[in-house]
Amino acid sequence: MRNLRLVMAFAAVLVASASAFAQPTRRVQEQQQQSQGAVTLSTRARTQYTAQTATPAEVSWKRDIYRELDLRKEKNAALYYPEEPLGDRVNFFTLVFKLILEGKITAYEYRLDGNELFTPDNKLDIENLLKKFYIESEKRGNQYIVETSNIPSNEILKYYIKESYYLDQRTGDFQTRVTAVCPVLMRSDFGDAYVSYPMFWLNYDEISPYLGQTQVMTSSYNNTSNRSLDDYFVMRQYEGDIYKTSNLRNQSLAEAAGGDSANIIQERARIEQQLTDFEQHLWSGTSAASEPEEAVSGKPAKASSEASASRTQRTQRTPTEKAPKAKAPKPAKTKSSGSGEHLSVHGR
Fold this sequence. Notes:
32% of the residues lie in helices and 21% in strands.
């Protein structure tokens, strides 16, 4: 009887030991399965490593602006360098391209109309992308492997970005946020002239947590002036020319201006001034929510505070109210908005 008890006790110890060893093994296997093709960052990390806040639900005014960032300009060089990986430092395109290949972020097709569409049926076909731009790769299982030296980061000389300017109705704050990014590959396929090839659109909200963990040098004069790529975009350290705004005809400035470079420059300056005036009106206690017509007239646009005040009065009146008698408007007090926006009227 005593021997039987010893045998049963010994068996219980063996079962407990096997269970203890099996649990860590099963846990490791589950972690490995989850890590294959999954996003490395947790939900908490996604919210922690981004400096940009989401667009609020209560927005009373919004305008979408598309800009072209030329990486040959000093302010945009932080996105281009280093051309080749330097230790743990890589440039913006190398970072996002590897994340796409690893399945951690999603790239979306660049459509013929130039607009971004972040839907499942518009996801980028990686194989077609690699073939289209002659990028050497090796397929291992369901994943494409591209050596860092074969990533064409040195040919990405431009980016298209989409900005949303909006008025938060709840707080009354005027904000600007980047919503989409598109790398533009430039190759001299025909003689010495560069040809631009927009590659794909990226949803900025999806990539921002990874950008928040990547440091870039933003000054050639002060080499300790480093910040994250996310801060770089959120603080709008880049310099870009407007090439399009969201409009009913979906026309770019070049299309609306008939290709006239002088009109394009003029229209860029007009749109920049509209954005500045709108924010200044908020500080001065007036509203400028109405929009002028988007057509390019070819004539200099006149900035008129009287016209803005008149448009504001019309938008604020209800249908039952009668228009008040015209009175000479008092000059609005000007106050610096502190937006730090750079007015860029350089032609392309």
